[in-house]
Structures are given as C-alpha cells and as structure tokens.
Amino acid sequence: MLLQIPNLPDPSVPAGTSEEQNVEVRRWGTPRDFDFAPRPHEELGEALGLLDLERAVKIAKSRFAVLWGPGARLSRALAQFMLDLHTREHGYTEVWVPHLVSGATMLKAGQLPKFEEQLFKTVEADEGRTLYLIPTAEVALTALHGGEALAEATLPRHYTAFTPCYRREAGTYGKDMKGMFRHHQFDKVELVKLTTPAQALAELESMVRNAEEVLRRLELPYRVVERCVGDLGFSAEKGYDLEVWLPGQGRYREISSCSSYGVFGGRRGDIRYRPAGGGKGELCATLNGSGLAVGRTLIAVLENYQEADGTVTIPPALRPYMDGLARITRAAAP
Asked: Which of 109, 123, 173, 302 lies at a C-alpha separation of 20 to 30 Å from 270?
C-alpha cells in the first residue's frame, strides 16, 4: 500500500486539479505567419514519402510508424544533435543502457505498481522471468546507482541517454490518433540528475533551460508551463512542461516534461550520498526530463519549416548532421 502513495508536492507548486490549470511561465519565439494553410505532419510526411503508417500496421499494429529515407535520416540527426548539445555544452555524461529491465527496477523507478497496464513486458521461455521494456531511459539511468552511497563531492551527477521508449498508452485511445504524435514506440533523449535535496530545485530550473536550448537552436517557438498539483504526476514534487508550437494543429503541444522527485526518488531507488563532513548517509534527490522527445521534435520541424510547394526546409542547426541537405523534397517511392 505504501508503494501506491504518491510524492508530496513542493509548497511552491500551483494549486489546480488538471492540466487546464497549469501556469504559463514564459514563451520564446513567434509562430510563423504562413501565407498558405499549413498542413499537419501526417499529411506532409505521407506526401513527401517520409511517413508510412500503413506498413507499420501491417508489420506490428496501430500506433507504430515507419520512416523512410530523409525522414529516418532527420530523426537520427535530431537525436545526434541533442546528444552533442547536452554532452558538449551542458555537461551531461552519455550512457548506453539496457532497454529491458527487471520488475524490481521498475518498482524502484516508480513505474510499478501504478503503471502496470501501460507497460510492455516479456517473459523468458527458459527461466520464466519477466523483463519490462523501458517506457523511458529515466528508469535505467536512475537505477544505475540503486543500493549505492555516493560521495557528496561527486554530486550533482548529470546523465543523458538516447533510447527507444515503449508504452502501451492504455486508456488514451481516441486521443492523437493521427500521425505519430502518440505512439507505442518512440525515441527520446533523456536527462537525469542525482543531487543533494538542497540542490534539487535549482537543478530542475537548469534542466528546463537545457531542454529549452534544443528548441532555441532549432528556432521552434515554444512555451514553458509549470504543472499544477493535479497534473504533477505520481513521483514528482515539482515539474514543468515545454510545449512546442505546431502550426498544423494551431496550438502548443507538450514536447518535454522535466521534474524533480526530491528524496522520493532516492528513497524509492535506494540511492544515498555520504555527506562531505561525515556522518550518516543521506537520501539523494533525483530529477529527470526529456531533452527532447525525438519524434515530436521531428513533427515540429516538419510543420514549422514546411513550404507552400510541399517541401520542408532543414533548420540550419541540423544541416551538418544531414550532410548539408537544406531541403527535403519527395523521397523515392517505397
């Protein structure tokens, strides 16, 4: 029963019962004024031969996607760009982690028992052991130091990882069914921090700025909202969402969620630190955020950089990762 009790919100978190009562903190950039009716990403992707949902259904089921040619290349370029930014300029250490983890790891990460129905899992035929496909790299990154006591002098620790993420999205059918906005498999560059409790909220603000910088370099308009108590989630003590402007939908949509779990994460994951002055080990605070969701960033690039002739301009920051390609035109028919 104790494992089903959520974290306590920080006193600074706005009151509210749903996402409609989240508080806008700031905006950056001005949505582009198109001289034509902007198309949603699913129409652009299909017309350019980049996005193939029919074949994804054939080989898997609905809510999966196939990306062809420049679409797949753009997805890879985005992930590489994000990793380079976070490791070279923001000081994160890149980590490669397992995509299958034990039930104990999911429990310590706060995914079980609450989110059982939203998880994909496998059962080993020979040993009957259950392993879960990670819904986010946060699970594996946070669990790296489970059962350990870290020297205070080594904190804060900043980790990043690029992984596929797997979510059944149970209970969301009927929402965002078009295109690839809400799928069972998607790529994400994750940010995780381990800190002392006193550092946690300042590190959260820093993490949000790190995620924002991705959108700024790509010149994508966005806004930052602070989540109210009712939208905070099971494990968070305080959190923000980054919402990018999607002209095909005519509104801002979530592209990153950054949260501080405080010592809830350290207690759940059994992660402690040894105070520099000596004494009993103390619980670490844990933080995580998307830096960013790759698929949703791809959607934002397609919609914000579309042209009247149906082509898509590549943001200048991504061109070095696309061998200098400046524009996506119709791909060869798959």
From this structure: 123
- Mean pLDDT of successive 10-residue segments in the chain (334 residues)? 92 96 98 97 96 96 95 98 98 98 93 90 92 97 96 98 91 72 96 98 98 98 98 96 97 98 96 94 98 98 97 98 95 62
Note down the domain range covering 176.
Answer: 78-97+134-322
Phi, psi of 57 (to 5 degrees): -65, -40
**CA distances to 50, 88, 295 from 332, in Å:** 9, 36, 22
Please check whether residue 146 lies inside any domain of the structure.
Answer: yes
- Quick one: pLDDT at residue 175? 66
Predicted local distance difference test score (pLDDT) of residue 333: 57
- Closest to 299 (Cα-Cα) out of 48, 52, 40: 40
Would you list the DSSP string of 234-257? SS-SEEEEEEEEETTTTEEEEEEE
What is the number of structural domains in the chain? 1
Give the CATH number for residue 295.
3.30.930.10
- Contact status, residue 191 vs residue 256, Cβ threshold 8 Å: no
pLDDT of 164 reads 98
Q: What is the per-residue pLDDT for 36?
A: 97
Is the Cα torsion angle 81, 85, 88, 93 positive or negative in sign?
Answer: negative
Fill in the amino acid letter for 67.
L
Q: Is 162 a domain residue?
A: yes
pLDDT of residue 287: 98
**pTM for the model:** 0.95
Backbone angles phi, psi at 199, to 5 degrees: -90, -15
Cis peptide before 113 (omega within 30 of 0): yes
Helix axes 69-88, 294-304, angle to 10 degrees: 110
Q: Are strands 130-133 and 282-283 parallel, antiparallel or unpaired?
A: unpaired
The angle formed by the CA atoms of residues 279, 281 and 286, to the nearest 5 degrees, is 140
- What's the gap between Cα 111 and its chain centre? 15
Q: Which amino acid is at 179?
A: G
DSSP conformation class of 285? E
Would you name the residues annotated as active-site residues?
167, 182, 254, 257, 296
Q: Is residue 119 part of a domain?
A: no
In a domain, 257, yes or no: yes
